[in-house]
């Protein structure tokens, strides 16, 4: 009943958060034979399904359809003029998004029916006690032995944009709820989200400008690949990855007025109807009361292999740990956090899969294994391909981009890759599997490659790498900072 206190209860593992990681933790706890309780204030449906992976891909699909129609004349095909129906685009995004969310909420409904979900906001009161402010106005006192924190993350708003009117400033929490496409859009951030959505809105006919910081393009760190990505994307987009920012303020006729110096050194002032802030996310660890259980968030670190927080019987999974903010990583995080919480103090490390991250821009971006910035000095060789003349890519008129693959100098064992090119969401998987299997460049070159396919692109890069392993220059050497192939 609203306003009443629920009976106290005790569980083996309390799980704060019912997103991807939290649901995974619950499954793992139950498999281990321990009792679990989820606590989450909602809305349910996971960040990916509601405001992340799925609605963004739905918007990108609409943008790609428009782009392909406009580009058809290169093949001698001349469709009628492309007309964008903004409300129809967003209705489909929202409808299909809700369908994906429904699949997830079936799982939370099951947990609720089994008495393993409390809808409310939990707070830790001590080593083995928590309080839940229920959504119906009541409270519940919960005793627990171990804790899994899977509270997700929230959008980071840079200081210059925090005072903008909510009607004008959007994050991914609001952008997919629009009734119509805005007349113009300023995108703050050229990381994964900013690049994907900025390009999508541009292709849907929205006047769009993207402002980044520090030269960042998605998650790329290789200077050769980043330079290629910047040059190619700047042909299409009003993209500025390292502008000089002067200020932003509300415009008299609504929207915002922005003042910055662009990539060419020109001072610019422009007005935009809306601002999409895509400047990253921050973990939701503050305000949970962890300090009452002896946790020092400035000193206690999260073990990336066990998910344990310091020496406490607490485990942090998913976006809340800020280690691997990707859905497939959150699934693994939740599983190992749940298993270790159930079995504590007997815990074990997770054998992590090869890192793999994809950005659904056009051309696509992908990183596999160790990125350039993560390679030890003089400990790697590289091979590359420029897709300008790659056969299948030219057939499809998608021949743009560059890929570099890294390997150990003596063994030839693959270490990683940074990729900007056509359909690298697929070729990145092939490299990730090869790296996880411990294959060297020559072993991968013995695998079958059909002709003509875009997969031949990574064969070209591997052949270049093979030659450089015999006669080339190591990359990232302090004495000779010349990249392979330059």
N/C terminus separation: 71 Å
- Strand tally: 21
The total count of helices amounts to 11
Main β-sheet, spatial strand arrangement: 1-2-3-4-5
Percent strand equals: 15-25%
Largest sheet: 5 strands, mixed, barrel
Low-confidence stretches: 1-7, 480-486
Globular, elongated, flat, extended or rod-shaped: what is the shape? globular
- Cα-atom Rg, whole angstroms? 25 Å
Topology:
Elements: E1 5-16, H1 20-31, E2 36-40, H2 47-51, H3 53-71, H4 86-113, E3 117-126, E4 129-134, E5 139-149, E6 153-155, E7 169-170, E8 184-188, H5 192-203, E9 207-211, H6 223-236, E10 238-240, E11 244-250, E12 256-261, E13 267-272, E14 274-277, E15 281-283, E16 314-316, H7 327-343, E17 356-359, E18 364-369, E19 381-386, H8 391-395, E20 402-407, E21 414-421, H9 424-436, H10 441-445, H11 456-471
Parallel strand pairs: 1-2, 1-5, 2-3, 5-16, 7-14, 8-9, 8-14, 9-10
Antiparallel strand pairs: 3-4, 4-5, 6-15, 11-12, 12-13, 17-18, 18-21, 19-20, 20-21
Account of the 3D structure:
- By secondary structure, the protein is of the alpha/beta class.
- It is about 30% helix and about 25% strand.
- The chain has 11 helices and 21 strands.
- The protein has a 5-stranded mixed beta barrel with strand order 1-2-3-4-5. The protein has a 5-stranded parallel sheet with strand order 7-14-8-9-10.
- Helix 1 packs parallel to helix 7, helix 3 packs antiparallel against helix 4 and helix 3 packs across helix 5.
- The protein is globular and about 70 Å long.
- The termini are far apart.
